[in-house]
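Write out the 3D structure for:
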Amino acid sequence: MEQTANKILASFYGLAFGDALGSKVNCITVNEIQDHYGKYYHALNFDESEDIYHVGDDTQLALYTALSMKTASISMKPIEELSKFLCLWFLDPKNNRPTSQQNLRAIERLNKGIHWSSATNTSINSSSALIRNLPIAFWFHSLSKEQTEKRWRITQEATVLTHASGESIVSCCLLNEVIALLLNDCPLKELYERLKNTCLEQTTLWSSNIGNSLWELPGFSSSAEYLEAGFNKCLTKFKHVLTLVNDDKTDYDPCELIGEGWDAEDAFAVGLYCFLLNPDDPESVVQRSAFSNGPSDILASIAGALTGAYNGTEGWPGDWLSKIEYKEEILELSRIAGRR
């Protein structure tokens, strides 16, 4: 358990490191990043003269999700706790970072008391929900059947509060599954098969707290059909990543190879790709994923969380650990998750 707790902490830190580094270059082109930092991704780093490495909205949202887990894990309807804590983030004076307008509008509607099924972005496929949901994997990190089902159900509920497309739901679930596998020392060569097998078991899993509010739309006859496109897209992307990893194109923007990262399955795949290229070098993983045309903060947060879950805290530079914003909150919430 002590090793798992260390890896949870390292993954949470990795999320924040990726968010902080990626926020410095978010939504600008690789050419613009190169003009400022230099040609290669290793040139992208923090300014050591800074007292604090400031994170973006994704880390803040992840912290609120972690706070909600303290009560949602014993609640009959975690979706209500998750919604409440999203609204608390919305009202937080420190909520002053650039954020996804889709997220913001959905949470604003939740804050007005509108039911999530009307507040959410029903058909929009977006990577915006991926990072804030990662603490669910920290809380439910066991690979037991019971915890796996809880992890998938609660991740579904967390995602649909703002983004309810099948691709968004499945991408969040699969990212959290990979995090859980890495926390439990799954060998990298087994990752795809283990994930595929879990997908087959969970394809028809639909949280009863969500009910029929989403999939009973024109063109769908069941919840499994609603999610099927998401499963197919995500696993196809994952398989494509495995073929690319063996042919590292160091000079290429990872988004050029896989997809820009605005769609959920693309962001999941880009973060995974950057992790698998250098699994034993966390610093390079975060730098490589942030050095991209896409949403650098989201991509680097995904990659940072993955490499943290794989390597533990020993893989992170000391100044990153000492200077990251919210470091005490991350430490405390990771300790609570690690004791479960």
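The CA atoms of residues 90 and 108 lie 7 Å apart.
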